[in-house]
Each structure stands twice: as structure tokens, then as C-alpha cells.
Amino acid sequence: MQEEKQVTDYRYRLHFEKTGTFAYVSHLDLVRTFTRLFMRAELPLYFSEGFNPHPKMVFSVPLPLGMESTAELLDFRTVEKLDPVSVTERLCAVSPIGLEIRSLAPAEGKLSEIAFAEYTVTYAVPPGKAGEAAFSAFLTQERILAEKKGKDGVKTVDIRPMIERWERLSDTTFRALLSVSSDRFLSPDLFRSRLHAYFEERVGGPAPTCRMVRTAFYRSDAVTLFS
Amino acid sequence: MELSELFPLVQKPGRYTGGEYNICMKDKSAVNLRFAFCFPDSYEIGMSNLGLQVLYHCLNLAPDVWCERVFAPWPDMEDRMRENGVPLFAWESRDPIRTFDIVAFTLQYELCYSNVLNMLDLAGIPLLREERGEEDPIILGGGPCSYNPEPLADFFDVFSIGEGEEALPELADLLKRMKQEGRYTRAAFLREAARLEGFYVPSLYRAEYREDGTLASFSPTEEGVPAVVRKRVISDFNDPKYIPTKPFMPFIDTVQDRVTVEISRGCIRGCRFCQAGHVTRPLRERTPEVVDAAARETYRQTGYEEVSLCCLSVSDYCGIDELTDRLLAWTGEKKVNLSLPSMRADSFTKELMDRTSAVRSSGLTFAPEAGTQRLRDAINKRLTEEDLFHAVDLAFDYGKTSVKLYFMNGLPTETDDDIRGIADLGKKVIDRFYQNPNRNRKKPPSVTVSVACFVPKPFTPFQWEGQNSREELERKQQLLRESITSRKIRYHYHSADVSYLEAVFARGNRKLGKVLLRARKKGLRFDAWDEYFRFDEWMACFAEEGVDPDFFALREMGEEELLPWDFIDCGVTKAHLLRERRRAYEGSPTRNCKEGCSGCGADRFGECLCKKKNK
Predict the structure, then answer these.
(1) Residue B567 phi/psi, 5° resolution?
(2) Is B454 in a helix, a strand, or coil?
């Protein structure tokens, strides 16, 4: 096994969705799920050299457990060139429910170039006039302090610079663009909890229940889609 | 409240979401029988159980039967369910299981009995069979512990004794037919079920007791119900139809998560404490072709990175070389590991080691079970010190530095010398390491000595033996601790309290039903988990019900005594068990089945491998 030299110059990027209960598959479990999915689809994966060969995979920014996404990306390597259309079909045929394979293409650039993630927030009922006023005032604050759990315990940080956009799409639908680069990472859960705390303060009641889904990634200019 | 609303509130929601790859989904409107297969322990343990995969597969072969999985919700989830009025559900459909036709529990070990009752309660099903009505499901039990079903007789409508691949679909079919023909009532169904081979209906038998608490008689209450329940054995162990090649795959990390194919049933060894080795006879092996084909297809359907073989002793499998050749022919190129569990030190070879990923792990495990040759002869574990040294030498040649050794204490005829022998054997294994010129010089050796407490089990030559008292077991544990002088030996032992409770229920009778009911009322659950095991509360349950647990665990049962499980014919005869018990006290081992048949009686249930070999 170890002696064979593998040719490794094929890098592909898979675009997939995590929906329904599949959103409860954690990042670590996702790695295992994809390894087995690729083996079922008989992809000619590139395996790492050494004592415990394993396929190399890189995922886009981790998603909180339970959050759905239509924008997930996965980079992997193969020892043969793939036909994206037929391979996508093969993968779809052996995927668990909730893991939807959208497309496959040769990988361009690195996933670490992702700077922002877009989240679409859909409220069960319209937040109303007062609510919308609170939402639009949210970003006018100079600082938005939040407690962030890190390696060295809980820290208070200003998350305002990490919120690129927060905008209304319709009565019930809103969109956030949050920084997810490695040095400035804002978790969508933390954003939502600060937003809703602000809402409650201003409106005097809790925000309606909502569903938050990650819907896109952007490059550092916050305008160009990353795919 | 919707079940899915509870997911964000609990640890590891992946335990409850369902939707795993390869699960069986069916159209409810096209199904005539709903079957809930309950594993009364955590999702992670249950999903690792091969029996569940096998029976799920066999039941779902019928298009109009839908078998679904159910596990014991972890206490955090159970609490949320009770708070929000969410009843116990089936993992595939999320429908409450109290609406099902059959709710089955696999009984893998005695300490899960409290979970069985807790799960019935959480499902909203009356615990006592006497209290169930026509609308309630039939509660079915099966698995290893059903070889003595008596402690659970108050709670179960019917037990399946022996192998379930053919028996469970037959029972499901009977119920379905009776409902379709409009002649189903619980009583009518159970009366017919009792006449099927391999089924025991507790309500149709009466147990009477003597003043000393022992059984006076045990007999059917009506004509046509068999006095002896014969276990079931499948008609053709090589029939690929019974091998699940599309196993459901958990998303979350579980104990066993790989391609597993069962290669044999029964065991040639007949270790005198071992229930599995006796009740699974006659000996049968699947051919290497059948196993290899099943492994390939399972790999194709799963993409697992490891293939493992399941049986009681892998190195006793006749076709092991041919099988490993066949498997290695395709696993290597696909980067799939081959692992061989339960290797015996006396048939452990360099060839086997070369072939498996045992080479990759850092250590190996062997089970001498006893510390001296005398005691090993008495329990019929014929492994010699030389066998063990040969095996560890090989392991050390390969650069391994750690060896795990399994033992038992409290075995019949055991003396303090036997206990000290355990420490001695551990020390000798360390010495072997330093005498080995090929040893790994970068790491010091480590030997882990892991000691379980002997629990007398039905259908073993030691079924009559009293267990050592907890105080005596603890004294022996302490003696061993003092006898181990090397700091390179790590010592683990099992709780005597847990083993005691296991013995009570392993050899119990119907009088334990009220104790279990009280344990349920006290909220006891997950007894197999240290953090939930409440020994004092269990003892209180016995005291409050006026049941003496020592009577079941510690008492030596009489050879003439009618034992609670005597009405079951498991294949091996009582005469054989008695002969083996005598030989234990004489210190004589018995030849293994490959060397010659010892007449255990299991060949009445089908051709035994020992007979084939000797033809």
C-alpha cells in the first residue's frame, strides 16, 4: 500500500446542502459520512501516505450543530480525472436523506479564501413595525458586545465589525453577512442571540421564532460569491 | 410537542434523529404489521449490535411487515420526553410504539431489565401483561437472557427462545393472519403462539414452589401447550437470505461501526462458565465463499473502512486461511482493514497476525480466565502457559508493547493460590518481554490485567454453583491488588455489586417480578452504567418485597432441584452439564469438539460440525 506512488493532481470541489435532521450530523461525523459516501460511489480518491491512509478532505467553515445550509463546500483530491456530471449522479444515488449533492467542479483557489458567510433568517410571523425598526437600528450601534467562549475562557468582544450586512428581504425574511475568516469568526448563533436580545430590549417582547439557514459564501470584498 | 423540537434541547441529538443510511422505510398504508424492535440500552450500544441488524433485515424481507428500531433514550432525553408528554417512538417513522402490533425487546444482559420496564412505561404500555388490553401491542422478548425468562415472566406476553431469523417472521405472520381473518384476540393469539416451535408464553404455565422457595413444579396450564420449549435453530446457516448486506449506518460514533459478518455459531471449546458457548450449539460454519460474498456486498452498500468477522472464537474457524485469502484479495486495494476479534492464544499464529490489522494496533488481548493451570483445567479453559507465552512472544516480535489479559475471580474450586497465580502470570509476561531479543526498545511493556467476577449462568456446567459473596469477591480483589508488585502491570476489576445483581437475575424465578416493578417505581434505569447504578436502592427493593436475593445468587442449587429454566431445551442436555460439572471438580478438562464429540446433545438440533469432521 505505502510503496505505490499516487498521482495527485486532481482537486475537486463539491457543493452540497445539509437539510432536515441531517443538520444534526456534526462536523466530525460529516468527515466519516463523506469518506464512506465516496467509497460507495467508487471515487478514485487520493489517500494520504503512511501508516493509516485516509482520504484528504477540506470543508468550508464549520456549521453549528442543528443549523441547515444550502451552501456547504468540500474540497477533495483524486488520482484520476472525474466527469462531474456522472460523478454527481453517482453521489446522489448513494447519499443519505438531507445530504443533497448540488454540483461538482474542479477546485479553484482555497476554501480559506472564504471571508463571509450569508445567512437567511425566516421568521414564523412578520416582526412588525417596531421589530423592523429595532432590526434596522441594530447595526447603527457603535459597538455590540458579546461574550465569546474561546480556548482561554469567556471573553467579551465587540462583534459589530464582524457584521458586514443585515438587511430586509421581505416581511418575514432577512439576510445577514457575517465574517467567518479564521482571525475574525462570528458564529451565527452568537449573532442571532445578540440581535434578539436587542430586539427584546427595544420592542419589549421576544422576537418571533425563526429558521436560520446558511445560504452562500463570499470573498473578502463581500460582493463576489465564493464557489 | 413535536419530537424534533426536543433535538436542540439534548446532548447528542444524532441519537434520536433517525434518517441513517440504509434504514428501511415503508409506506404505512401498504403495511399490515408494525413491529418495534427495542434495544434496552443507549443508541450507541444498540446500533453496534449485530443481532439487531440481522433480525431487522429478516423481518423487513416481508413487504407488508415494517420492523423499526427503538432504543432507550438517554436520561436527558427521557426527562424532556416526559416533561413534554412525548411517548416512546420508533426511530424510522417516529410513531408512538404503543400503536404497534408487536413490541419486541432483545435481552442482552440482566442489567438492562430496569430499562425494559422504563421503556414500556415511557411508551405508555401497561407494564404487567395481566393489565394489557386488546388494543395494546404484544410484548415479545428474545436474546441471550431469554434462556431464563422467568424474572420477566410478569411483563412479557411471549418469549422467542433461540435463533430468531425464521421464528420472528413466523410469529409476525401468525399475528397478521389472525388479524386479517378477524379472529385475533390476545388470548387466542398467545394460545397459538405457544404451539409454534421456540415460543414460550408465560401465562400458559404455572410455577409452584416448596416452602424452602425452590420450584416444586412447572407445567403448562392447558392441553396442547408443550411442557418443554425447544429452542429454534435456523434451517440453513449458509442461506445468504439471512445475512444483512445493507446494514443501517449511524452518523454518530458508536462502539462497532464496520462491516461485520458472522462466520460461525456454537463453540468447540465448552468453557464451563460460558453460556454463549453452550446455548449456541450445534456448531455451524458459513463457507468462506458465503462470508466473502456477504462482506463484499456489505462493503459495496456501506463504504466502510473495516471488515470484521463475528463468532465466538475466530481462530477455530476451519476455513480461516481460505477466508482471509479471499478477503485480502480485495480489501487491500480498497484500503479496507481486516480485523479478527476473539483470537485465542492457543491458536494464534504468525500467519494470522500478518493478515490482519492486529498488526497496526499497539496491543493484543488474550483471555486465560484463570491464573493457574489447575484452575484452567477445572473450568475447561485449556490454554496453557506455553500457549500464552508463544502468543505474547509473537506480539513482542512484532514490536507490540502492551498486552491485555482477561481473568475471572470467584470461579468454582478457586483458592487464594489461583488468585496469586494471576499476578504471577502477569509478571511472567513482563519477563517474556525483556527476554525477547526483537522487543521494541523504545517503549516499556505494559500488561493490563482485567478481572471480572464469576456469575453462574443457566445452561452451563456451573449453573448450580453459588456465587462468592460480595465480601469474598472484594477480599480476592484486594488480595490480587497486594500480589501485584510490578508497576508495569495495570489492574482493573469489575464491581462485585454489579456481578451480584447479574447473578440474582440470571438464576432468578418469577418472584423477582415484583422487585423489578418496585425498581421501576423508584426510577432505576441504566444499571449497566456506573453513573446510574444504585446498588443500595436495589437492595431496598428486595427488602421491601421480602425477596432474598442471596437465594438466587449465592445458594448452591441442588442437582436434583427443578431449576426455573429447566423447561427450556437449549440443545445441550442437563446430563452433559452434570458430567462436565463432575469433571470440573476432578480437575479434568474435556476434549474440544474438533478432537472428538463429547455427546453434549446439541446435535439433536441439526448436524454438528464435530460430526462432519469425524466422518
Answers:
(1) -75, -5
(2) coil
**Does A193 contact B at CB distance below 8 Å?**
no
Identify the CA nearest to B169 among candidates B266, B99, B66: B66
- Residue linked to cell 401465562: B203
Nearest to B303 among A28, A29, A37 (CB): A37
Give pLDDT < 70 ranges for chain B: 342, 356-363, 611-615
Instruction: Report yes or no: B587 at the A interface, CB cutoff 8 Å.
Output: no
B441 touches chain A (CB under 8 A): no
CA-closest candidate to residue B593, choices B230, B238, B271:
B271
* DSSP E strand stretches across chain A: 10-18, 57-59, 68-78, 99-106, 116-123, 145-150, 153-158, 163-168, 173-181, 184-185, 210-218
Threshold 0.80, pTM exceeds: yes
Omega into B282 within 30° of 0, i.e. cis? yes
ipTM exceeding 0.95, yes/no? no
Q: What confidence tens digit (pLDDT) does each residue in A169-194 have?
A: 999 999 999 999 988 999 999 999 99
Band (A7; pLDDT cuts 50, 70, 90) = low
- State the CATH class of domain A114-218: alpha beta
For the beta carbon of residue A70, count every other beta carbon within 10 angstroms. 16
Per DSSP, the three-state class of B494 is coil
Task: Look up the CATH number of domain A10-111.
Answer: 3.30.70.580
A40: contact with B, CB 8 A cutoff: yes
- In eight-state DSSP terms, residue B21 is B
CATH 3.30.70.580 residue ranges in chain A? 10-111
Which residue out of A18, A19, A21 would a mutagenesis test of the B interface target, given it has the greatest number of B Cβ atoms within 10 Å?
A21
Task: Round to whole Å and give the CA distance between A195 and B486.
Answer: 61
Question: A-chain residues within 8 Å CB-CB of B360?
Answer: 51-52
Model pLDDT, residue B365: 85
pLDDT of residue B344: 74
From the CA of A33, how many Å to the nearest CA of chain B?
A: 7
Place of cell 410484548: B139
Strands (E), B259-344: 259-262, 264-265, 284-285, 306-310, 337-339
**pLDDT-derived band of residue A49, with 50, 70 and 90 as boundaries?**
confident
Are B535 and B592 in contact by the 8 Å Cβ rule? The answer is no
Average pLDDT of span A125-152:
91
Interchain contact A96–B (C-beta under 8 A): yes
Burial pattern B472-506, b for ≥16 Cβ within 10 A else e, equals: ebbbbbeebeebbeeebbebebbbbbbbbbbbbbb
Residue in chain A lying closest to B15 (CA)? A24
Q: Where in chain A is the domain with CATH 3.30.70.3190?
A: 114-218
C-alpha distances in Å from residue B587, one per residue of A124, B68, B272, B336, B375:
76, 49, 12, 45, 7
